[in-house]
Design goal:
Number of helices: 10
Structural class: mainly alpha
Number of domains: 2
Shape: elongated
Distance between the termini: 36 Å
Number of strands: 4
Largest sheet: 4 strands, mixed
């Protein structure tokens, strides 16, 4: 058995060395794929293209709103309305988050400067995402809109979603007013509520989403937007995801790197060092 092992020992050493080296590179690669740094290096819409989509979608919403007024004889919802279907505690968190966003004059001025409108110009209805399965008439969806809400409400990593009417797309709402679904995950604490509502109001303002690649599961559909990332960093939003990604990347990388160095020492470097030492001792004697 020992003779057989000696025969395959060089191959085994090479295999284990390649294994630890491969695992180290794999852990680094998977981690980097989750970062903003990686995602923002991919092809993404330019600011001019974003503004064009916003104008087209806004015109579509106005057209549907006009049709709603003619058919129903009443105006659609104006401003941002928080649904009464939330619990008193959740509603209070949302009201506070919305007030903080709207009262932040510097933030709203920056958004208006970059996009030509701000959250003060947004009309939207905020409702509990888990109630998207209810009668579509309750929340003003068409069949298309209700299907979109159902699909979005089942996404694993989403704390919220927005259903709104888009240019050259089937009508999603009955009145041209975006619907924002807030999931229970977003109601974990006040910081999370504020960040989630901020994100979804961007969509309600018709900033288009741009989904990351399937293997970049830790980023959202607005990270591509330089202005969005800048606001999150500049205006005090608690956003620890990017830092946590790098931490989670570093831990397995350092672990596999340690195993690799330890393996190389015991299998290759130690033997090389002892071989050279014996030669020097032998030459000296």
């Amino acid at each position: 058995m020992s003779e057989m092992f000696k025969e395959f020992e060089p191959r085994f050493k090479k295999f284990t060395s390649c294994l630890w080296m491969g695992l180290t590179c794999l852990s680094v690669g998977i981690g980097v794929l989750q970062t903003e740094w990686f995602f923002t290096r991919w092809d993404r819409p330019s600011h001019e293209e974003v503004l064009k989509v916003m104008d087209e979608d806004e015109a579509e919403e106005r057209k549907i709103a006009d049709q709603y007024i003619k058919a129903r004889g009443k105006l659609p919802t104006t401003g941002i309305l928080i649904s009464e279907n939330f619990s008193a505690t959740s509603e209070g968190m949302l009201v506070k988050a919305l007030k903080d966003l709207l009262d932040d004059e510097a933030l709203q001025a920056a958004i208006r400067q970059d996009f030509g409108r701000s959250f003060h110009d947004v009309n939207a209805i905020v409702f509990p995402a888990w109630e998207a399965i209810h009668d579509k008439a309750v929340f003003g969806f068409t069949d298309v809109g209700r299907d979109a809400a159902l699909i979005a409400s089942r996404q694993v990593f989403a704390a919220g979603f927005t259903v709104h009417d888009r240019h050259n797309q089937p009508q999603a709402t009955i009145d041209g007013v975006p619907r924002i679904g807030i999931d229970r995950e977003a109601l974990y604490d006040q910081d999370t509520v504020k960040l989630t509502l901020f994100h979804e109001l961007f969509h309600a303002m018709n900033v288009p989403k741009h989904e990351p690649p399937w293997y970049t599961v830790m980023q959202n559909d607005l990270v591509y937007c330089d202005e969005y990332r800048d606001y999150v960093k500049r205006f005090g939003f608690k956003y620890d995801r990017e830092r946590n990604i790098w931490i989670v990347t570093a831990i397995p990388m350092l672990f596999f790197l340690y195993l690799l160095i330890r393996h190389l020492w015991w299998v290759w470097l130690r033997n090389l060092w002892f071989t050279r030492l014996r030669r020097r001792v032998g030459a000296a004697s």
